């Protein structure tokens, strides 16, 4: 499968008063055409900043180095003017709160048709027709009427659908969705996940789903990348990571997540707190919270390395099937 | 806890015909609109159980929690605490009663006074509700409570902003527990926390429940979390009870079409099961509580709705096994689902 995005040695840092915080370190991965990649991690893991940096949307004190190539186009370090040629056309991003991403003073139809007028040189009439078709495609009832509405007149679920419609107007190769269902009700979240599944299939768009919710990951993703303390700690196919996690943090996330289909007696939380990016522990950043740690983990940082056959990688010195070991313990 | 043990539990709290409306001013010239947040709410909470309250935004679950504690005054109905109607108590008597009934909020940092130290925050309810307790004794109790919730004694003089969300929630829990309450309303206590921290707090709550013999009312939008902690679960939809059932029964054999839809929509952290689910999920979103549908409030989204559902409000029917269901057609739906 063709790679639509190739990330190598991506680093993101933020300048503070008299120090620098590294939010993302040495990120390497590729995104394949049409696949759904889930990026999983807790707050401060660097999962959002990695993709904001690719979109050129870092805060003013942020800086990205390394490379993010979309075909032959290098996105890292590209001036905003030039980025605008690709943003919204080849690569699009949607966020958790659609209200803050929509312009409150413009009608929905204006905001949508503008994208096509700008990127595809459509005339107003053709753009509007296409916009209304897309609204219908993402499941908005009576799209002509809704197109005439202002964002505040729509419900949260409807607004998120408008955002998705806007992101898909130019049939981008890549759609980055940052916690797109977190603010929605359960029944609406289910509708959204259904929509993502069918849209990626119909448009061949590669989807990056940034989330902390493993239930969401299980339902939509093909592959996943788990991040901790600014680094990728485990990557691979969703089934492999869920049924045979090899990084203790992945195991911890799974054991912390209650399953509505079964009632466990007790959850097994990850003890301790997520690390402060300013004071990462020496060696493996997860070592203070790890059940499987040994001496080496305090001295050296484990690199993200491939193992086994199924395109898996992990950044952990411990060798063993963690889930099986936890269950027998 | 088994169903048999729970059935012997005496009701600690009884809520009868509770109704709460809010009036919403749209402009100076127009008559204000009425939003019915809760209507016909009847249920009991038994000593020692955890009653989960689940529903989507606008279903009234937080309003219900606050009505129980009289933080919001209900329009109609009774809230009986060991037989005594809290809605009739004067504010002075209600203050005393607050020792027994406490609350934990969703946003742990926002619910802590930033100018007070951790020790002052935790001691605060004790200072106002139990002025008879000496300062030394108060401090001793604060330290005991900090230990119980997993905070280190040296944190006593720190301020809330120095703590992470999970630790702040521990402070909130310690503050709720300091008066040795019998019942705690937990309003989305883990929704703002990271997954790994969420599990820590859920486990802490269940340990504390055992240790202090607490009764919990656990409000959440997250079905997985509610199932994990609750003995019985109350499903709310647009201000009315759709179903009240023991947790296991609700999750394995939901009777109300809305309970069924909620379960079907809950994300399952298991890729194979998640993929195998071919869900014909609910269409649309929750209608506005300002102008709710006539009859059954769920009928506009219900795949089984018939004429009767628009004409009559379905009564909350007591079916076998300690279950309550408010649906005109639940028997027919069950026959349809099992038969075909």
From TrEMBL, chain A:
Gene3D superfamilies: P-loop containing nucleotide triphosphate hydrolases (3.40.50.300). It holds the Pfam family ABC_tran. The keyword Transport applies. Keywords: ATP-binding, Cell membrane, Membrane, Nucleotide-binding, Transport. Residues 7-254 form the ABC transporter domain. It is a peripheral membrane protein. InterPro entries: AAA+_ATPase, ABC_Ni/Peptide_Import, ABC_transporter-like_ATP-bd, ABC_transporter-like_CS, Oligopep_ABC_C, P-loop_NTPase. GO terms for cellular component: plasma membrane. Its main location: membrane. SUPFAM superfamilies: P-loop containing nucleoside triphosphate hydrolases. It is found in: Cell inner membrane. One of its GO terms (biological process) is peptide transport. It comes from the Bacteria. GO terms for molecular function: ATP binding; ATP hydrolysis activity. PANTHER family: D,D-DIPEPTIDE TRANSPORT ATP-BINDING PROTEIN DDPD-RELATED (PTHR43297:SF7), OLIGOPEPTIDE TRANSPORT ATP-BINDING PROTEIN APPD (PTHR43297). Belongs to the ABC transporter superfamily. This is Peptide ABC transporter ATP-binding protein.
UniProtKB/TrEMBL annotation, chain B:
GO terms for molecular function: ATP binding; ATP hydrolysis activity. One of its GO terms (biological process) is transmembrane transport. It comes from the Bacteria. Residues 13-263 form the ABC transporter domain. GO terms for cellular component: plasma membrane. It is found in: Cell inner membrane. Keywords: ATP-binding, Nucleotide-binding, Transport. Its main location: membrane. Pfam families: ABC_tran, oligo_HPY. It is a peripheral membrane protein. NCBIfam families: oligo_HPY. Belongs to the ABC transporter superfamily. PANTHER family: D,D-DIPEPTIDE TRANSPORT ATP-BINDING PROTEIN DDPF-RELATED, TRANSPORT ATP-BINDING PROTEIN. This is Oligopeptide ABC transporter ATP-binding protein OppF. The lineage of its organism: Bacteria, Pseudomonadati, Pseudomonadota, Alphaproteobacteria, Hyphomicrobiales.
């Amino acid at each position: 499968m063709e790679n639509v995005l190739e990330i190598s040695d991506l680093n993101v840092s933020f300048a503070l008063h008299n120090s620098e915080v590294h939010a993302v370190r040495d990120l390497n991965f590729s995104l394949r055409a049409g696949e759904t990649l889930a990026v999983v991690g807790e707050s401060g893991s660097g999962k959002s900043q990695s993709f904001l940096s690719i979109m050129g949307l870092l805060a003013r004190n942020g800086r990205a180095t390394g490379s993010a190539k979309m075909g032959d186009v290098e996105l890292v370090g590209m001036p905003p003017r030039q980025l605008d040629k690709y943003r919204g056309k080849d690569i699009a991003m949607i966020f958790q709160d659609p209200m803050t991403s929509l312009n409150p003073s413009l009608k929905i139809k204006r905001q949508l048709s503008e994208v096509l007028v700008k990127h595809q040189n459509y005339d107003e009439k053709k753009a509007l027709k296409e916009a209304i078709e897309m609204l219908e495609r993402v499941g908005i009832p009576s799209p002509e009427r809704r197109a005439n509405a202002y964002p505040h007149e729509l419900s949260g679920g409807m607004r998120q659908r408008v955002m998705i419609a806007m992101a898909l107007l130019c049939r981008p190769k890549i759609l980055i969705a940052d916690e797109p269902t977190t603010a929605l009700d359960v029944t609406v979240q289910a509708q959204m996940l259904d929509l993502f599944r069918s849209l990626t299939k119909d448009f061949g768009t590669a989807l990056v789903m940034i989330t902390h919710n493993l239930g969401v990951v299980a339902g939509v993703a093909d592959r996943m990348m788990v991040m901790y303390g600014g680094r990728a700690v485990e990557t691979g196919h969703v089934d492999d990571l869920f049924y045979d996690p090899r990084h203790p943090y992945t195991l911890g996330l799974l054991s912390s997540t209650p399953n509505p289909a079964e009632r466990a007696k007790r959850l097994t939380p990850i003890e301790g707190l997520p690390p402060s990016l300013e004071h990462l522990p020496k060696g493996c950043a997860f070592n203070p919270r790890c059940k499987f740690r040994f001496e080496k983990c305090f001295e050296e940082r484990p690199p993200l390395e491939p193992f086994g056959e199924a395109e898996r990688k992990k950044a952990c010195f411990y060798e063993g099937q963690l889930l099986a070991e936890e269950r027998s313990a | 806890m088994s169903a048999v043990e729970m059935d012997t539990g005496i009701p600690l709290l009884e809520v009868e015909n509770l109704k709460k409306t809010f009036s919403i001013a749209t402009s100076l010239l127009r008559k204000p609109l009425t939003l019915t947040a809760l209507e016909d709410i009847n249920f009991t909470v038994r000593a020692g159980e955890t009653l989960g309250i689940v529903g989507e935004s606008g279903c009234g679950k937080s309003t219900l929690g606050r009505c129980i504690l009289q933080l919001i005054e209900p329009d109609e109905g009774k809230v009986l605490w060991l037989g005594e109607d809290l809605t009739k108590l004067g504010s002075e008597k209600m203050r005393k009663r607050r020792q027994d009934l406490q609350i934990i909020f969703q946003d742990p940092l926002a619910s802590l006074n930033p100018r007070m130290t951790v020790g002052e925050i935790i001691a605060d309810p004790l200072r106002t509700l139990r002025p008879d307790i000496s300062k030394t004794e108060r401090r001793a109790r604060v330290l005991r409570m900090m230990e119980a919730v997993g905070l280190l004694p040296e944190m006593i003089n720190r301020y809330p902003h120095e703590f992470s969300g999970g630790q702040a929630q521990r402070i909130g829990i310690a503050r709720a527990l300091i008066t040795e309450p019998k019942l705690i309303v937990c309003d989305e206590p883990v929704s703002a926390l990271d997954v790994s921290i969420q599990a820590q707090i859920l486990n802490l709550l269940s340990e504390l429940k055992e240790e202090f013999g607490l009764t919990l009312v656990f409000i959440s939008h997250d079905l997985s979390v509610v199932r994990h902690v609750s003995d019985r679960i109350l499903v709310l939809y647009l201000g009315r009870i759709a179903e009240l059932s023991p947790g296991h029964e609700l999750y394995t054999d939901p009777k109300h079409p809305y309970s069924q839809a909620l379960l079907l929509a809950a994300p399952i952290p298991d890729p194979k099961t998640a993929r195998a689910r071919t869900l014909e999920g609910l269409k649309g979103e929750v209608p506005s509580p300002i102008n709710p549908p006539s009859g059954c409030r769920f009928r506009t989204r219900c795949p089984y709705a018939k004429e009767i559902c628009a004409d009559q409000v379905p009564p909350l029917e007591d079916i076998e096994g300690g279950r309550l269901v408010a649906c005109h057609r639940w028997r027919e739906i069950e026959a349809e689902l099992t038969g075909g």
